[in-house]
Amino acid sequence: MYLQRRNRILRQSPAIRSMVAETVLSPNDFIVPLFIDEGKGQEFEIPSMPGYFRRSIDGTVKEVKELWGLGIKSVLLFIKCSDDLKDNTGKEAWNADGLMQRSIQAIKAAVPEIVVMTDVALDPYSSYGHDGIVENGEIVNDPTVEALVKMSLSHAQAGADWVAPSDMMDGRIGAIRKGLEENNFTKTGIMAYSAKYASCFYGPFRDALDSAPGFGDKKTYQMDYANRREAVKEALIDVEEGADIVMIKPGLPYLDIIREVKNAVDVPVSAYNISGEYAMIKAAAKMGWINEERAILETLTSFKRAGADLIATYFAKDAAKLLNR
Ligand code: PBG
Fold first, then answer.
1. Model confidence over 24-73: pLDDT tens digits?
2. Looking at the chain, which terminus has fewer C-beta neighbours within 10 angstroms, N or C?
3. Rounded to the nearest 5°, which phi and psi values hold at 77?
């Protein structure tokens, strides 16, 4: 047989394959979500996220040191708010002495170089479990945006390098940017969850923080998974309003959206490999149906190939260890 082109030449050994790989994963790509709780020496494994923990500040700081040692550059903080501090205003979210604020301070004191990002949305603080303020059964946009500005400023004040609004209210990126400017936080970044879909795959996360909505769903603010163009619209508006990074969430069922947004914007794009995606791999691996390590690397590489510059993932530590091998 005479063939002009033999495509397999580029695949014939591990050396040549790594020379021509179009996508290379690195610990620099990862953002590690951390769940934080009150107390000391506390550590709870999340039942629907085997191998993932919610820890008190001391344990979290220890974990962050380890992550930094593995070459990971960023963490994204979530706290579990105790029930007696939840209300419909979300005011605990900007308590200068709140769990989030103390966590930021402790982490920045222990590992000052690490990039600390914080989730900005009212759901962990809301007695209704919604991302915004509720009036007559509706999640009201503008009063919520005012609350999110206070929350963001309080995180910046505590030392957060980045705020990551995950609430999907309209106009919040512009309002937060204005608030940061007016208060002289000119170095604080905004990573906007620009295209965040109303997804069933958030279930395990809501177990982790006890933040499931008490009534209804989040479909009046999070996006309809039927839509693609709308994601580009959201991302472009967020960039115009001052977002430094735009995020797509969930990840795996939305790789097409990552590529679409990547082609449309001139800022870095991040994607969130969320709790339900983690749970699926863990469950299948536990059953012996897939190889966990290979599933992790293949999944995370697919995010990058789709166009994600950064990946928020519960697999970050495992993946960093595999990549450092
Ligand atoms: C809160 C928030 C959620 C997630 C990140 N920030 C849950 C939600 O919107 O209900 C989900 C993360 C995950 O599932 O891993 N606004």
1. 999 999 999 999 999 999 999 999 999 999 999 999 999 999 999 999 99
2. N
3. -95, 140
Of the candidates 274, 213, 208, the one whose C-alpha atom is nearest the C-alpha of residue 37 is 208
Q: Does the residue 15 lie in any domain?
A: no
pLDDT surpassing 90 at residue 255: yes
Number of domains in the chain: 1
Indicate if ligand 1 lies below 6 Å from the C-beta of 273.
no
* Whether the CB of 125 sits within 6 Å of ligand 1: no
At 164, the pLDDT band (50, 70, 90 cuts) reads: very high
Residues of the chain above pLDDT 70, percent: 100
CATH of the domain at 129: 3.20.20.70
Dist. CA 122–CA 90, nearest whole Å: 6
Identify whether the C-beta of residue 320 lies closer than 8 Å to the C-beta of residue 27: yes
Q: Is the peptide bond before 250 cis (omega within 30 degrees of 0)?
A: yes
Structure tokens at 152: 């963001």
Beta bridge partners of 193: 247
Tell me which of 123, 148, 191, 303 to substitute to probe ligand 1's pocket, judged by most ligand atoms within 8 Å of the beta carbon.
123
